[in-house]
Amino acid sequence: MIDVSLDRAFVLPIYYDMLPDLAPDHALFLDMDGTLLDFAPTPAEVIVPPGLPALLADLAAQREGAMAILSGRTMADIDGVTGTILPAGAEHGFLCRDAAGVIHRPITISANRPEWRAALHDAAVRMPGVAIEEKTYTLVAHFRRAPEQGPALRMLIEHFIEGEPDIEILPANMAWEIRPVGAGKGRALDWFMQQAPFRGRVPVFVGDDTTDEAAIDAANARGGFGLHVHRDFDGTTASVRAWLARAVKGVLR
Ligand SMILES: [Mg+2]
């Protein structure tokens, strides 16, 4: 059941006529922060909108499990938001959990190397406000609390990944993420589309960020719909939720 608090968002703006109707036989892929819920600087500060876990459960059930979250966050963070165990590409698709709950690693190169980890932690000591996040396959240097350190931090990272053709710097939100080349949400979407129950369906993806562009392209390339929160919606996560809720309520206009 959908939480009734979503009903207030049911007066849909006119541009909704431009959006595709989400059908039960679509495979659905959703970014999390900035798409399903408003962005927060840390996972602990995220506010999960009332009704979101029930909405996601209904969307997943409607398409027999062919729905996955594609996020830069860890699997634990994703599960904390969705309140259940859904198929998910965590850490930009480095860890993909299929519909049976089995975790796969489509990419095997790691950018979380001991010497780089140590170099970043040393830098964080010298640069107050810089925080280092260690993920399974990537390292993230956050400078939200010290924006002036951003350029110097990037130069440092460029210096130690020099001569590593398999490693790149991904500009994230007030952070630099060091990761293997070719990783990302587009690749994760393609991986899911080869698995049951996604295989054979038309993919629909919604995202809001530069890291989502590859998944938007991948969905479009498969004859589906890659939608952007700012280009295709009005830039608010409430509008995305209302569009999704309309699909499970079967509202006809
Ligand atoms: Mg996002």
Automatic annotation (TrEMBL):
Function summary: Removes the phosphate from trehalose 6-phosphate to produce free trehalose.
Keyword Membrane: no
Signal peptide from the UniProt entry: none
Pathway the protein acts in: Glycan biosynthesis; trehalose biosynthesis
Catalytic class of the enzyme: hydrolase
Domain of life of the native organism: Bacteria
Keyword line: Hydrolase, Magnesium, Metal-binding
Gene Ontology MF annotations: metal ion binding; trehalose-phosphatase activity
Assigned protein family: Belongs to the trehalose phosphatase family.
Protein name per UniProt: Trehalose 6-phosphate phosphatase
BP GO annotations: trehalose biosynthetic process
EC number(s) on file: 3.1.3.12
Catalytic activity: alpha,alpha-trehalose 6-phosphate + H2O = alpha,alpha-trehalose + phosphate
Cofactor: Mg(2+)
PANTHER family in alphabetical order: TREHALOSE 6-PHOSPHATE PHOSPHATASE (PTHR43768:SF3)
InterPro entries: HAD-like_sf, HAD-SF_hydro_IIB, HAD_sf, OTSB-like, Trehalose_PPase
Keyword Hydrolase: yes
